[in-house]
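Sanity check. The docking grid for iron/sulfur cluster depends on where the pocket ends up, so I'm generating a full predicted complex first rather than guessing from homology. Inputs follow.
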Amino acid sequence: MRRVTFSRNYTLSLSRTCRCYCKYCAFATHRAHLYAPAEVERILDDASRRGAKELLVLTGEKPEVHPEVAARLRDYGHEDFTSYVAWACERALERGMLPHTNVGVCTPEELARLREVTASQGLMLESVNPDLVVHQGSPTKHPEARLEAIRAAGELRIPFTTGILVGIGEAPEERLAALEALGEVQREYGHLQEVILQNFVPHPRYYGAEPAEIADEAQRAERPPGEPARLPAWATPITLDDMRLLVRECARLLPGVGIQIPPNLSDWWLPLVEEGATDLGGLSANGDHISPEHPFPSVHRMRKRLAPRGYALTERLCVYPQYMDPGWLEQGVLDVIKLKYWSFIPRRGSGRREERPIRRDLVAGAIAKAREGGELSPVELTALFGETRPEAIEDMRQAADELRAELAGELVTFVVNRNINVSNVCIVGCAFCGFGQGRRSPDAYEHSEEEFRRRVREAVEFGATEICMQSGIHPDWTIVDYERWLRVAKDEAPEIHLHAYSPMEIDYLAGELPLREVFERLKAAGLGSVPGTAAEVLHDGVRQRISPNKLPVARWVEIIEAAHAAGLRSTVTVMFGHIEEPWELAEHMRVVRGLQERTGGFTEFVPLSFIPFHTLLGRTHGIEEISREENLKHTAAFRLALGRTIPSLQASWVKMGLDAATEALGWGVNDLGGTLMEESISRMAGSYHGVKLDPEDLIGAAHAAGRPAAERDTLYAIRRRYEVPVAA
Ligand code: SF4
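Predicted complex below; grid placement will be based on this.
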């Protein structure tokens, strides 16, 4: 899965009066146009109501050259237009929206003034040809003037969006020269967050008309109104291949910079994403004010076209993640991000949002203590999860590996099992889940008994010793249904071990029944052990944010304790790499360790890294998949946090891929989990690591790490060993 981003914005065309006369522009007017403050406030209220995260302030250049605009600005108490733009941006910030301004060529002073109240700014370079017919009468369209302004923004450390116009009369080599010029600027300042490759589309002029109204009409019709406008004489026709070349060159000349394709200006946005474009721009809730007759395709529709090709459409803010720090943004702007859009702040290894200090001075001592099995304090654990220094992380890895060798030996175990997710119908609605579906969703399913039996038989034929059974929280099921699925499985495969029902399912099926009775009934129906899922992060603050309808920590603990008391072993999981903080993971480990010390019922600890792609949390909170390095570091930290309490630590190949799971064998891991045969939960969240492995794959992974492998059963009895082959 690859992420393709967009920003949910709202356009404020504060003034359309412009000093330039570009021939392609339908936006500008040379009459006086300026919204009054009350009107601006009304527009901002509407933007806020419509859930915009970005306010795109789009204006003509230097509108105060028009005497009437200048007079109105004075009436509103502003000495110039920049001051009025800044005022509008402040009002947007007050409403929790992040301003991105695009007001034409600015002086360094004007850029600096706007920097105080914006999250990012923009100016299209357009072209490096200084003699284009379309730019006659527009002195600030001279490439030198624009490059100077773009460089000035770099000097001022302003996260910046720029781009080129394609098809306005330039020669193909001039397009590449423009990208080269931007590449040079980027190498010097590093402030270009994205480059827009915008193809020219001809359109009528809109004098006297309101772009938002034209956009609204086009949106409702879902197509441009009327006949398509004819290509003017000065324009150059563009082909998909021209655009493909530009995407490739942009990626080469500006590595790491976003490549934006406006999805409303042609049908070729999809092939261009496949070519390497990374962004579909700001999808304005009130339309495209530059080309209002071209409606944006809906997010839903774009997502449907992208998903089968392996792309996940996710939201971003107008400022790209790498610029969300005090070196690039004013404190007031950062405060809005921290308050409203904290989940978009990238993890940089430590204390991302609530700035709790990470006590690096404690790390060496904590590693030594953990190596001896000692229990770490919350601050020590927080320091391990928040560690960023490569040498300290290597020390963590070594200690975790030694602890693994001491507790679990060299053997790498796995279980031959099959997952069966009987139904994905779910009423809970966790934000991190791509699996659960409403009953009426076209993706909802529920296996018939016949289908369920077939899957059980198939598992037996495959040699599975375990069936892992979990489903959504189905509104029609009662404990009787849960008992029935167990009985049917046992009827089909009397020998098979049934590892079933998460604490969330147990909580739901139990209703008012005492847990002791519930587990007795489930055991009688064939239950063999319980998956310790639904743990996510055992911290109620995190749970409130990602799954407010899920059972609270205390109930999760109560259910697992009851399972252990009933003689059922369980696993225990953690889901990390989303919005949680290091100190919240520390709390999770405190709960897990305490519980294990009381009951000794956990068979293994299973870290599950968050797969963001098809989940609400990933799509609308901008959360990216955790990096392999961070994933491995967390793996070692989990091993150290457990000390000698739970001897088995698993790596999930579904979440991290078999390659990373193999590497994790050197980071404290001794178990590679199951063959699974079908895996719907991660797959529906967008995991690209497959749904089934053969035992040979897992044996091969162990051998690749130079360790012997063994098939185990659910409760860790060894069934078969596979020694490392001796080299011939
Ligand atoms: S995680 Fe489980 S409970 Fe939550 S929505 Fe998904 S299926 Fe339902």
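Relevant for the grid: The pocket of iron/sulfur cluster is lined by residues 426, 428-430, 433, 435-436, 472-473, 504, 547 (CB under 6 Å).
Also worth noting: Residues 468 and 582 are 30 Å apart (CA to CA).
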